[in-house]
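quick one before i forget lol
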Amino acid sequence: METKLSFLLPENVVHAVAGAMGSAVAMTVFYPLDTARLRLQVDDKRVSKFTPGIVAEILDEEGLEGLYRGWFPAICSLFCSNFVYFYTFNGLKELWLGKQGISTPGKDIVMGLIAGTVNVLLTTPMWVVNTRLKLQGARFRNTEIKPTTYTGISDAFRRIVGDEGLGALWNGTLPSLLLVFNPAIQFMVYEGLKRKLGKEMDEFTSVDILIIGALAKAVATTTTYPLQTVQSTLRYGQHGTDRKRGVMRSLKQMVSLLAQRVHHMGPGALYRGLEAKLLQTVLTATLMFLLYEKITAFTFRIMDTACRSHRK
C-alpha cells in the first residue's frame, strides 16, 4: 500500500509543478521561434525556408502580434502537458526505483514512454485547439488552406466537435504516440549524462544543466522530426486529410503524408523547419531544465526546513 501511495506523494507534485512552470516560462521567451517552425511545417508554399526569413515575413505582414499568436492556449496546453509528464515520470521512478534506486538508460526510456503515452492521450485535444488558434489569422502562401474564425479556446473546442466530431480532437494522435520517443529519448540522454558526470544533484552548476539539457533535446528532436511535421499537418486538419475521420489516424495515412511531402518537395521536406525547431526546442529545453532543477531544489529546501522546524 505504501508503494502505491508513494505515486501521490507531494514530491511528485513539486516535480510536476516545477516542470510545468519551467516549460511555460521557457516557451514564452522563445515563442516566436515556435511560430516560425509551425509556419514552415504547415504552409509548404513559403519561399523562405529559414527562421530569420520567416520571422521577418511575419513581422512585416502581421506585426509582433503574429509572432505571439496563440500564445495563451499554447501555454495552457504546455503547462498541463508538462505537469502530466513530469508527475507521471517521477511517480514511476518512485514506484519502480524507490528512494535509493539507481536507474539505467533502459529504465529511463521505458518510464519516458509510459509517461509520454499518458500525456498524449490526456492532452492531445488541447494541442489540436492550440494548433488551430496559433495559425488563425496567419497569411498563408498555400491558397488551399482554409482560414478559421474561432473566437477563443472554448469556441474552438465546441466548433471542432460540432463540425468534425469528437474524434477530431485527437487528430494526429498516432504520430503523437510515436513521438513519445522524443521526450523518452530526451530524458534518457539527460538522466544518463547526469549519471556519467557522477555528481550529486546539488553539485550540478547552471552551466552543467544547460549543456546537458541542450544535448538531450538536440538528439531527441533530430531523431523524431519527420513525425513532428506530420503531427502538425494532422492537427490543423487540412492538406488533403479527411477531417471527418478523427480519433486515430491510420498508419497508412501518416505514411502517405510523408510520401507526399517527399514526392512534391524532395527528401529535405521531411526536415523542413528543423532549423527553427532545433533553435526553439534546444533553447527552450535548456532554460526549462535549468528552471526545473532550480525550482525543485529550492522547494525541497523549504520543505526540509519546514519539516525540521515542525519536529522542534
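fyi The radius of gyration is 20 Å.
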